[in-house]
Every structure is written in C-alpha cells, then in structure tokens.
Amino acid sequence: MTLTDQKAAVGAGPPRTWVPKSRSRPDGLLACADWDGSVRWRDGERLEQLFEERCDRMRAREDGDRLAVDADGVALTYPQLDERANRLARFLLAEGVRPGDRIGLLLDDAVDAYVGMLAVLKAHAAYVPLDAGFPPDRLRYIVADASVRMVLSLSRLAERTRPLADMAESVFLDRVRSRVAEQSPDRPGAPAAGEPADDLCYVIYTSGSTGRPKGVAVGHRAVCNFVRVASEVYGLTRDDRVYQGMTIAFDFSVEEIWVPWMTGATLVPRPDGPSLLGAELDAFLRRRRVTALCCVPTLLATLDPSVSELRFLLVSGEPCPQDLVSRWHRPGRRFLNVYGPTEATVTATWSPLAPDRPVTIGVPLPTYSVAVLDPERDTVLPPGAMGEIAIGGIGLAEGYLNRPEVTERAFVPDFLGVPGNPSGKIYRTGDLGRINAHGEVEHHGRIDTQVKIRGYRVELTEIESVLLRVPGIAQAVVSDRETAPGTVELCAYYTTCADTAVDPERAVAHLRERLPGYMVPAYLEHLASIPMLPSGKADRRRLPPPAGPHRLTAQGDGAAPRTRTERTLAGLLAAALKVERISVDSDFFTDLGANSLLMARFNAAVREHPDLPDVSMRDVYLHPTVRRLATALAQAPSPPPPDRVPRQPAAPAAPAVGGLRYALCAALQFLVFLGYVCLASVALDIGTSWLARGQGWLGSYGRAAALGAVALIGASLFPIAVKWVLIGRWTPRRIPLWSVAYVRFWCVKTLVVANPLARLTVGTPLYTLYLRALGAKIGPRALILTRWVPVCTDLLTIGADTVIRKETFLNGYRARDGAIETGPVTIGANAFVGEQSTLDIGVRLGDAAQLGHASALHEDQSVPAGQRWYGSPAEPAPAGCEYLTVPPARCGRLRRVCHALVMTLALTATVGVAEVVAAALLESRPALVQAVTGAGGPGSWTYYADGLEIAAATVFGLALLGTTLVPALSRLLSRPLRPNTAYPLYGVRFTLQRAVARLANTRFTIALFGDSSAIVPYLRALGYRLAPVEQTGSNFGTMLKHEVPALSRVGTGTMVSDGLSMANAEYSSTSFRTAPAAIGRHNYLGNNIVYPAGGRTGDNCLLATKAMIPVSGPVKENTGLLGSPPIEIPRSVARDHRFDRLATGPGLRRRLAAKNRHNAVTMALFLAVRCLYVYGLLLIAMFPLADSGGLYWVETVGTAVLELAYTVGYFVLVERAVLGFRALRPRFCSLYERSFWRHERYWKVPSILYLSVFNGTPFKPVIWRLLGVRMGHRVYDDGCRILERTLTRVGDDCALSAGSILQAHSLEEGVFKSERIAIGAGCTIGTSAFVHYGVVVDDHARVDADSFLMKGEHVPAHARWRGNPARESHDGARCRRP
C-alpha cells in the first residue's frame, strides 16, 4: 500500500481489519507480519499538515460541518478549528515566535490546548506541554531545560506562571482573544512562518532516576508515522466520538487527540474540574454520546459495562487485568491493549483483547520492531527467555533533551539492522519481558534496582540526586534500614564540602519541596566520610545505624495542633511512632509510615487516656490524620461514664462453679458417651452378626444395604427422640454451665449436630424435614445450605422461599457469663442470609430482607422487610447490593419428593453400606479382619505386617484417588453446568453441582498439597484457571472451599491464606446457577474470606482477614480492604516488603527449590503420620478381647474408648515431636526461611480435627493443655480453633464459642509474623469471632459474635467489643463484674 493509498483510505475509514500477527527473524527481531517495510511518513512532512490535509479532504467532499471538537459550550468543525489555529499562529508570529522556538502550553482548557498545539506547529515551532498541577519547582526546571521562549496560558493560572516570569514570556490567551481574532484565518504557510528549523514536534517530560525529569524530544517523522499507523490499525472511524480526558502533558494524549483527527472523528474533552470516573464518567459518556474511550485500566474498572454504549476501547499505561477483559468484551466492540514508552512515540505494540486469550502487550505495530535483549550485553535472547524489551523503528524519539549521557545509555546503536530505522538506534525500555510461543510480547515489570517503602517503589538514586543539590553537600548515599523490629525507614548519609556546614533542617526542607512524602528520609546523618568499596562505589553495608533524631516525613513545615484533643493525640502518636513530633495533617500510613500494629498500640494508648473517647482501627483508617481523627471524635457521641451506663434487665449471675460440680459434669458426660457407645455397639453387633450370615457377595451386599438403611434411619431418629425426651420444646432461658441442665443441653446438641443425615443431606428437602422434626418452624421451599446445624430448633423460624447460604451460624444459643443463653432467631419469607454469616439470639430478618455475605446480626438487631443490610454488625447496604439474583425456575413438590426419595436410596446403597462394612471390620468383628488378611494372632509377625499393609493401602490409596479420581470426576461432572444459566433445584444438574462441591472439597487432598508448590497443579487439575503462576511454594493454604472449581480464577502473583471460599454458585429457593469467581493479579487474601461471583475487586489488592468483598460499586484496585462492611486501607506497609530481596533475584530459584524439598518431606510426613495412625486403629480393632459371642458388644465398647484415647495421645505426641518438644517462639521472617517452613510443617502434619468430639466438655481444655495451650480452669470450649497452641494463653472461666478462632500469626505479602495471644479470666469469645496475633484481652471482657480483633489490639477489662474490625461497644448492658 502506497502512502497516497493509505491517506485516501484513512479519509474514507479503515481499509482493512488488522489482526495481530508477528514474524520473527532468525536473530530474534520481532516485527508485524503484514508490514511491507514502508514507513508512513514522507520527507519534510509535519504533524500539522496531516490535520490540514484532513480539513482539505472534508472541504473537497463538502463534509466541512463534521465536528473536530465537541466540548461543553464549544463545538468546532474541522475547518473552524483550523481557522482558529491559523489566527493564533499568525498572532504568535507577530509576537516574534520563530521556527524552532519551543513554546510552553500551560492550559487547563481543552479547546485552548488543541488550538495552542496546532498554532505552535503552524508557526513551525515545537510545543512543550505543561500541567497546571505540576509543583513550581518542576515547572521552572522544565521551562529552563527546554529553553522555552514563551508560555501560553490563561489569566486564572497567573499564580502558576509567576515563578516563570524571569525565564519565559507569558501570554494569557483570554486576554488577547480580540487581537487574535483580528488575524487572517488563512494558513500562515512557509512565507509567513519561515522554513522549519528542525524536525522537533514536541518535548514531553517523564520522571527519571536522576532526581530531575527527562525531556523526551519527539520529531515530526516519528509522530506522523505513529498517527498514520494507529489510524490504520486501531479501527476508529469518522463516525466515532472519542473521549479526551488525559492532560496534554502526558504522551497518552497524543493517542487520544491526533489519532481520532486522522480518521475524521470528533473529540469530546472532559469538562473542567476534577477528573471524572465511575458513575459520573458513565453518565458523561452516555450524555455526550461517546463511542470510543482511550484510558488506563484503572479508570475503565470504575465504569459499569452493563450501561456502556462504547464501540471502541483502548487501554494502556498499566497492566490490564484479565477480569477487566472478561467484563468489557462483547461482540462488535473493538477492545485493544497497547504498550509503548514515551521514547517510542506513544505506542509500539498492540493486541486485541478477548476473554479466551491471555493478556499480553501483543505484537509490534507496522513500522516498529521489538527484541528482547540481555540486560547486560547487546545480545538478543531467544523466544521464551526473560530479558529487557527493546524497540526500534521510525517511531523512536530523538533522545533526551540536554542529556547526552542518558541518551547514550538508553538509545544504543542498532546492532540488529532494524528495517525502517532512520535513527540507527534501538531503545532499551528498562522493562522486563519475553516473547511467548505465539509471537507476542509479555510484559513483566521493571528491571531498575529499587526498594519499597510503605508499599511505594523508590529509586534511591533519585533521592541522592536531590540531596546533592543542597549547597555544601559533597556526597550523598541513601539506604533503607530496619531501625526497629518491623519498621523500615529511609536513611540519608552525607558529607560536606571543606569548611562548609549544612543545616539539617534546611536540607530536609529542600527534600520536602522536591519529593513526595514517602521519599523523604526519616534520618539525615552527617558523616566525615562515606565508606567506599574498592570499585569506588559506596559500601552500604558499612553505613552506621542512624543516631540522629527521627525527622518528620510529611511534606511542608507540618501543621501544629490547634485543640487540646489534637495536642493529646499528636503526643500519643509521636510516642507510638518514636518520633519527636508529627504534623496533624500527616497521613498515618502514607506520610508517617505507620502500620496497623503500630496504630493498634496507639489506640490502646488513647483508651488509657481518661480525657479521650475510645479509638478503633476503623476510626484510624477512615480518619487517617490527627486533625481528621480529632474532628471525628469531637462529633461522635460521648459514651456515658462507667457508673452511669444504662443497663438492660439481666438475669441473675450464674453461681460460681466449684470443682465438685465441674468434675460431676465431666463424669456424667463420660457416662452418657459410654451409654451411647454401648447402645450403638449392641445394635451394631446384632447387625453385623446378621450381615455375616449372608450368602455370596450379592446376598452380603443386600444385607449390608438393608442394615445401612436401618442404621441411617435409626441414627437420624435417635437425636430427634432424645431432644423431645430431654428438652421438650426449647424456650428462651439461661442454663448454668456444668449443671445437670447443661448436661441435657450438651447431650441434645451433640447428637443433633453429629446426626449423619444432617451431614449428608445439607441443602436438600431431607435436611429441612429433619429440622422440622426437631421443632423448627420452616416454611415451604426454604433452602438451607449451612452445615452448622441449628441446635435450639424450636426458637428458629424460617419463612417460605428463604435461602440460607453455607457456613452460616443459626445456633439459637450462646455462652455468656457462666451460662448458656437461648433465644429466638426469626427469618421472614423470601429472605436471604449470605455465606459465612452469623445470627445471634434475639434477631429478626424481615420478609424479603437480605443479609450480605460475611455479615452478622447481633442481639436485638432487626432488618426491616425488603431492605438489604450487610456488615458486622449489620447496617443498611448501599444501592446496588443485591444478593438474590438468580431467576426463579419451576421446582414443585413432586420434584422435591422425588429428589428426597432418590437421595435416600443412594445414601443407603453407598454411604450406608460403606459405613456398615467399615464398622463391621474395624469395630465389631476383629475375626473378620483376620479372616480377610489371613493374619494370625498378636503373637504372629504377620498380624502386624498385614495390619500395616491395610493401613498403607488405605492412606496411600486415598491420596492416589484424591489426586487422580477426584479431579477427573470434578471436571467430568461439572461439564453439563453452563455458567450463568439458571437451572431448577433438585434436578440432575443440581445433583451434579452438589456432587462436584463434595468431591472437590475433599479435605484430605487439599491438606496434603496445601502450603506447597504441589497445590498449584492440583487446583489446575480440579479446573482452576490460574494465570501464569509466580510460584512461591505457599500460593494457597491447606483450607480452601469452592462450589465449582472450573469457574474459579486466580491471577498471577496472588497469595491465598486458609479459609477462602470461592462462592461461584448462586441459589434461589427454586433455582441455582454457576458463575465465575475471579480474583485479580498480585492480590493477597487473608483468612476466612468469601469471594462471591462478581466480586468487585481487581488487581493489586490486599484483602484482610474476614474482609467482606463488595458486590457493587467500582472495582477496587491498588488498595486494601478491611472489615465488614469493607473500608479502604493502604495496600501495604514498609514492614511487608522487608524481605523482598529473598523473593527476587537469582537466588530465588535456589531458595524455592530448597523450600520445595522441605515441603516434600513435610508431605511425606503427613502421609506417614496418618498411615501409622490408621495402623494403630487397626491393631486395636483386630485385637481379640473376648471369645464369647455375648460379650462382643463389650469388646466393641472397649475398642471405641481405647481408640479415642489412642487418637488423643497419638496426635499430642506427633505435635510435640514436630515442634522438637519445644514451644513456638514469636517470629518475623520470610516464607523463604527455614523457620517458616518448620511452622508450615507444624500446621500440616499434626491434626486437631478429633478435638470436635470433646466440644463442650471439661476434657477439651485438658487436651489443649497437653498440646501446649496455657489453659485456665473451667474453660468452656464449644468449638474454638487455636492455631498456635504454645503461643496462646486462656484464663479461668472463659467461654470460647463455636466457630471462633485464635490465630497467633499472619502471612502478608510473603512475610510471616507471629506473636502471643493472651485471653484473661472470665472472657467470652463469641461465635465465629476471630482473634489475631499480638492481642491482649483483659479479664471479664467480651468479644461479640463474628467480631475481628486485629493484631496488637488491647481489650480492657470488662469491656464489650463488637464488629469487624472490632471496637468497643457501649450499647446495652456492660459486661458483668464479679
């Protein structure tokens, strides 16, 4: 295609639809496959001429009324814009502007900017775009460095131009409009403007590592070629209306402005004022009929694709998340991802985006070439090898203005013979990348040596360069140092010129004026000399620790406190941060470098101060400066004094529990256990005797099926009968702990929860029938998916067509003040309760009301009918929060009855038979085991060898089946489930989905592979879509749940802690559907997170423990989310990046290999420990205790008791052995250090699952003590998980509720941290509450249900804390004092 053909085609619209294809030369140079080798520029051609030719072609076609610009209040056709620019160009020439002059554009009005650019070019000058938001120092530097002759601006920006008065003439366009209007509208042309002095078109400044921005000089040939190529390839048309939102000071604006003009499209600039995003931008785009948008992915993520009318999308400037592609891709929409540094004239590579292909930066544009070079040598690396991305072609800039040394380093001689490369240079971008097997370029970040401070990447050389400009400083070195455990600071060291003194305060002020707050060193140290290496470089290892004062790191002089509250808060914060003073306007995190642990200590100090209200972590994150926090505290209602707190009527305190009553309760519970085992043993003994008389395999199977049916039905009816006999109907009451009434409560609770029917039929009509039989008032068509079986069922009301999602607590009771309190839980019809929610007693959810995921209703809370609430404690949710989104389907009574019958038969034929056979072999008939194995008696070696063979076959067979059969079945059974398609409940597809969920959530295999590199291929085998994995050896933990693994997506570089639930199935009372749940790239997920389908988070997010994932609003990216409802927090802090050096560099592969070897041994130990455990169970089961048939049931009882005792002793011994018979110590280390690997082994190899058998008994605290917990007396534990046993202390008479967790560690950003937890006497930890490391809870304090005590929190004695994150609650009665 000739240049003339190209120009004609551009005038009529895109001549062809380009697709990204590349060709690679043998030497590795990559180019566009369809490029014929010609450039899109002719000698002497200039950018403004392309615009003029566009105008001329429109006039020739009598199409001159087509708009070039459609701004608010100003609409200009192409000829009108051309004429305005002509008039201004003639005015500039009259004012003395000459060819080659550089003219600054400091304009905040889009139309003036467009006219100014064109006019400067028509005057044969070059423009230097400036931004009104630049600091004065940056403006002065650019104007001086670029030798700007004149600055075009507006009078409202006079304050910004005043510092430039001695450097360049300022012309305010609004003051000279009348003079400009007097000029001729004809183009000035060469006679008036003179011959062009050079090829320079514009100079755009980018930040650099030298302490000063670098001016990139771009010539006309480069930019003309680019806009022609882009207009050919991109697919914009003359009918498009293109949003222009970027300031002209960034080269992305060239793509927004000049490419649309080349196609005859219309620019729609953003309105004056702050930048638009989210709903405001959505509304603007629709109102102004915008069809094309060029933006960064972060901006696009704030928009709603469901209401967008955009035809064309182009993203650039940062990595584009795959999730964003999935949400925005649709047929007929052109969606491009482009990449290019300013030095390569805007864009060098491009790629259409689609959900079914990975995101890359694509292939070179026509006229561009790309290679991947060795970062150290001018050598091309082969495809697939990681190296430095390099670009060649006519699009290269001329270099850096006035920076020959930097230009020489970045623009290297063309040693490859790049075609169409007039500069003879290749530009080294400094970006890491590689060419994949499809001939596309993958981008993998920056090469530059940097450090991270408070989550920001910082080039130390930039700080050193700024410091060296302080008068009197001769040498400067900046280093990052850990000045205190967990605190990383920047420290600057300097020497002075001879006989010169430097004022440190003036030096710090110099830095503050020129650098962001996070780049200002916390310490400034004067040295007599900088320690040097033989190479002449500074020896940073020999730099002394800082000895001077810690300096304020916020910019400016620092705002002083104005009020008494501000002074007090500032003093307490300064003490917590160990600094002399702080500015009340400094951000706790971004300016002062605090982290949540430090702020927890600050909060504790505030609570100790009598004149200040309490401060919570939520307060700190919502009001992150002293001034804002003081204002918020002043506006908050003051809590009443302790002696005036209004009290609710309370039941009398439970009497003190003596040792005799406690021991009597334990004895009664043990007798009940023995009685149940005896009853089960007699029944099982009779049943297995009858089973043994079966003839042949078919006869034996028939008997086993019949016996299994009887066993399942009997085990299901028995708890119902016991409940009605021992309790009758549940009523609101208090039951003193360890009393006889409590033993009745415990008996019923234990049997109701342990019912096999409840475990196997969750989410089916049989489960609802079971709850109704226990007294629950449940309306028709209610769907209950939680495996936490309600206990006080008569107090539970669930209306018709209500949906209760999994892992929800509806207990109907709680432990408090030495007693069990029971109370009603009322849920209306057509209601919804989200996954992993908690409903305390005395709560109500109205008809058609919805409670979001990870939420809680506390006592006396009531959600009005039809409302949506979320959070812990729950509060009204914002508009758009909708949880019941599945359309209904036909699901009548017949379908439900048939499903119940089929499921009963299936359970009988499979689970019932398997349980009967296993029980017969292991518990009731040792002789059968001996007959099967041929083993002799205990005196024979074959007796033990055959037992070991059975144990090994059981454990290793389970591991093999879990590794092969489970993934295969999971994939096979999920194939009929089409995403986002609603199906009726209780049909074939519902059964398949529930089967997939049960199979894929097999705990054994996830625990085996978790916390190791092996978890990644295992999840992929299940169906997970994992982006190219950045293997850490700990990408996922050992506890993970999912509904449909094939619809689970996790992005590159993401780490996931234990307890993640991928909620990629949605339900109504009549239907369900599966939907993708996608987690972005470079996320960190804390513990116990529910990630729903459609979760509104993207890339680079920190999702804190128990954080609620938003389901509405803009996509959250590059931020952190904490709590429920979620609040935004800093993405990361300095402490989290202390060990970055271990996670990067050439040693990473070696460290990862060592970790993998250690983890392989851990996995082998996991299997060996379980093999030996099963072996011990077999030996006990096989041991003959009686010869008389009448005493076989006694043998079974003895076997059961002995095996339970063996289980406890065995796993206590295993855990102690794994720890080396020592206690854990608090740690702060990288996941690539051996101390962390040993901790992972401690999590994986032992087991504490058996402890649930002892819930609610005095035996469980005894076992906790054996495991290393410093456990007090008379502790009530109803199902708490204590993860770091030897780091945890629990006082006397505490209550640890069901689902609560005491976790003395965190693993954030690959950094492991552990610290002790101390729970005082008489404390209550509520249902599903979470207590993090470093927490201290003083005596008789209460942590309410579903609360999250963050790391380092200190709960005072007798306080009541509630919420996620928890804060002190003054509602209701105070905690009872003894």
UniProtKB/TrEMBL annotation:
The chain crosses the membrane at residues 662-684, 704-726, 900-922, 950-969, 1160-1185, 1191-1213. Pfam families: AMP-binding (PF00501), AMP-binding_C (PF13193), Hexapep_2 (PF14602), PP-binding (PF00550). Residues 1-23, 536-563 are annotated as: Disordered. Keywords: Membrane, Transmembrane, Transmembrane helix. Residues 560-637 form the Carrier domain. NCBIfam families: AA-adenyl-dom, NRPS_term_dom. This is Peptide synthetase.
